[in-house]
C-alpha cells in the first residue's frame, strides 16, 4: 500500500526563457499522444498495484503552458483513468508550474474547469508584470500561488514578492538554489531574508498555508514517520518517458515508463535517521536533514546535514506560528 504518490511530469523541454539556474535541459521536444497515453497507463498501473490513497501530479517543462493541448489531454486522461479509490490531496490533484508568459484566457478557463491549481514562477520579471499575471490568473481561476526560486534577483526582492502573495491571498513557496549551500554567503543571506519574510507573513495576520514556505518542510505533518516523499513515493517523468528519483538531479535516472514501479531502484532517501548530527534535534520530523541534493552539492556527499541547518533552526519556531494560525 502507498498512502501518497506524487509525480512531476515534464511534458516538454521547450521554454521561451533561458533562466541560468534551471536544471532541466532545454530543447524543442514535447510528449506526443502515444507517450502521454503510456505515461498515464504507468501511473494508473502503479496506483492499482499499491492501492494508492492520494495521487498528485505537478505538470512542468520547459514551459507546459506553451503546449496546452498536450497539457489538457494529460489531465483529462488521468482524471478519466485513475482508479475510483484514489483521492486528491487537500492541496489539489493537479498543479501546473508556469512562468506565466502563455496566459491565454481560453486555456485558463479550461484549467479552472478541471480544478487545476497554478503555481506562478515570477522568474526575473518586474514586480508590475508579476502583479498583472497574478491578476489575470486570479480573475479567471479564482486563485494563484507564487513559487519563488531564490536566485540573487529574487533573494534581493523577496520582501516585495511576499507582499504580492499577501495582497492576492496567495500561498508562497520559497525554494533556495539547489547549490546554494556551496555559494559563499548564500546561507547567511537566506537566513536574513527569510526572517523578513516571516516578519511580513506574521504581521499580516492571515492564515497562510505553511508547507513549502521554507524549502520542502511540511509543518502541518503530525505523524512520527518521515512526511517527505523524496526517494520513496515520488518520481519525475521526463518529456521522453525517462524516470528520475530526484527532481533537481538529472543524473538520477532509474528507469522509464516501461519499468514497473517495483523495479525502480531508489536511493538517497530523504531521511535523517542515519545522520548523527540530526539525532536529538527537535525539528527532525519536519526537516529530515534537508534536501539530499543540496547536501551533495555542498559537501560532495549525502552524509551530512543540510548546509542550511543553522538557518532552519532559527526559522522553524516562526514557521510553526504560521502553522498554528492555519490549523486553528
From TrEMBL:
Q: Which UniProt keywords apply?
A: Iron, Iron-sulfur, Metal-binding, S-adenosyl-L-methionine
Please report the stretch or stretches of sequence annotated as the Radical SAM core domain.
1-211
The terms under GO molecular function for this entry are: catalytic activity; iron-sulfur cluster binding; metal ion binding
| Gene3D superfamilies attached to this UniProt entry | Aldolase class I
Q: Which InterPro entries match?
A: 4Fe4S-binding_SPASM_dom, Aldolase_TIM, Radical_SAM_PqqE_MftC-like, rSAM, rSAM_sf
Q: What sections of the sequence does the record tag as coiled-coil?
A: none
What range does the record give for the signal peptide? none
Recorded protein name is: Radical SAM core domain-containing protein
Q: Which species expresses this protein natively?
A: Candidatus Woesebacteria bacterium RBG_13_36_22
